[in-house]
Amino acid sequence: MQRIFMLQNWVTISGGAGAAVTQAEDGYLDLENFRDIVVYPEFSFITGSSTLTIQTSPITDSAMFSTMATFAPSGFGQQTPVTTQFASASVPLARWIRWRLTNASAWSATFRIWVRVTGARWSETTPIEDDDMARGAPAGLELPRPGRSSFEARTQIARDRNSR
């Protein structure tokens, strides 16, 4: 299964020498159900020699993020995508991703970032087994898989109840 997400829509930011700007937590992307990722940054404006890093962490605590991809923008337009495959990456995709932009001198940048993820760690649903039928589950109902958020699970249960 392949999905495409926007990690960051067009944004313009700037900083002084040695400044670093990190994406706000409400913009982090939750990719818990995926293994492989391709990052597509695109710059429409840049001054200075900025470094864009894509970081990943199993939780949203800033201290836990590790760099999994680095870009040194070489002009305007789409940059060379970076692929990180779970099986061979030194820092594989954990769950959450964010961006961080740094520079040694004063800088300004306008950019956006798309990501393509593949290799679902598991399917989102699993068919009910015979022992589930013994507990009274309706035939053909698909139960949430481990890893789905409790909100998604509750929503699915409510939909199932309303359709009876």
Q: Are there runs of 5+ residues with pLDDT below 50, and where?
A: 123-150
Computed CA radius of gyration, to the nearest angstrom: 20 Å
Name of the top-level CATH class of the largest domain: Mainly Beta
Average pLDDT reading: 78
The CATH topology label of the largest domain is Jelly Rolls
Total number of helical segments? 2
Order of H and E elements: EEEEEEEEEEEHEH
Q: How much strand content do the residues show?
A: 35-45%
Number of strands: 12
As a percent range, the share of helical residues equals 10-25%
Q: Tell me the domain tally.
A: 2
Q: Return the structural class.
A: mainly beta
Please state the overall shape, judged from the principal axes of the Cα atoms.
elongated
The name of the CATH superfamily of the largest domain reads: icosahedral virus
* Corresponding CATH architecture of the largest domain: Sandwich
Distance between the termini: 30 Å
Largest sheet: 5 strands, antiparallel
Could you please describe the fold and organization of this structure?
- The protein has helices at 130-134, 150-162, and strands spanning 3-15, 20-22, 29-30, 36-47, 51-57, 66-71, 77-78, 82-84, 96-102, 107-118, 125-127, 142-144.
- The protein is mainly beta and 164 residues long.
- The protein folds into two domains: 3-118, Sandwich (Jelly Rolls); 125-162, no CATH class.
- The model is unreliable at 123-150 (pLDDT under 50).
Topology of this structure?
Layout: E1 3-15, E2 20-22, E3 29-30, E4 36-47, E5 51-57, E6 66-71, E7 77-78, E8 82-84, E9 96-102, E10 107-118, E11 125-127, H1 130-134, E12 142-144, H2 150-162
Antiparallel strand pairs: 1-10, 2-9, 3-9, 4-7, 4-8, 4-10, 5-6, 5-9, 11-12
